[in-house]
Design goal:
With about 190 residues, the protein is of the alpha/beta class. Helices cover about 40% and strands about 20% of the residues. A hairpin with a 2-residue loop joins strand 7 and strand 8. Helix 1 packs across helix 5.
Length: about 190
């Protein structure tokens, strides 16, 4: 059994001046240090999915070239670590656009969240994401990481004033590894197509 999982770290904020890439690098470094993952860094700021939804329903698998390249990376992943800020009590439109762009490639896999924002640490964005990922047939971990007042807490990809976030990230990665590995084993025995 090969217990090294392919983990897609998905950075969900794309605006100029964002801190999302710093938060994502902090999380990706921890995933690498964890030892159970090889990381594919999927920064949505660098992914061209087009401005509009494609004509075909993503369940058809008929993708435009840009979407097909993204779909191949989602297909290759065993697990997802979604890094999201909170915008108006939700998650960024760029992240929804990416989630909606493909379909079958998400299914039967596991995901966990690193969220950030003001006082709420992005938790309202995460609760919305859980609903959407259920529809995409992605299992989400109980634990996650929530970073409040994130705008003043990163020096590059270094987190300042750790109040338990590093420990929470370790716990989250352990859960993600268990679910990701269990589902990867299951997909090998019984390819998921429902
Ligand atoms: C359009 C917009 C809406 C926001 N709404 C919220 C919010 O509802 N709750 C919150 O805690 N922070 C909110 N914030 C603050 C962001 O969480 C904070 O600026 C964070 O750094 C944004 O992530 P980013 O830098 O990766 O884009 C908002 C920021 C923006 C730009």
């Amino acid at each position: 059994v090969n217990d090294t999982l392919r983990l897609a770290v998905i950075v969900g904020s794309t605006r100029d001046g964002r801190i999302g890439a710093d938060v994502g690098r902090w999380a990706a470094q921890a995933a690498t240090d964890h030892g159970g993952f090889v990381v594919d860094w999927i920064d949505l700021a660098d992914v061209d999915l087009g401005d509009r939804q494609s004509a075909a329903h993503p369940r058809s698998g008929r993708y435009t070239a840009g979407v097909a390249a993204f779909a191949a990376r989602i297909e290759a992943a065993d697990a997802f670590l979604i890094v999201t800020p909170e915008y108006n009590h939700g998650y960024p439109a760029a992240l929804k656009h990416a989630l909606d762009a493909v379909y079958a490639e998400w299914g039967g896999k596991a995901a966990a969240f690193v969220s950030y924002g003001g006082m709420s640490g992005g938790l309202r964005a995460v609760e919305q994401l859980r609903q959407v990922l259920a529809e995409l047939q992605v299992a989400t971990t109980r634990d996650g990481v929530s970073i409040s007042m994130a705008g003043r807490r990163f020096d590059g990809s270094q987190l300042r004033d750790d109040t338990g976030e590093t420990a929470a990230l370790k716990r989250t990665l352990d859960q993600l590894h268990w679910w990701g590995a269990a589902l990867a084993d299951a997909r090998r025995v019984r390819p998921y197509g429902a």
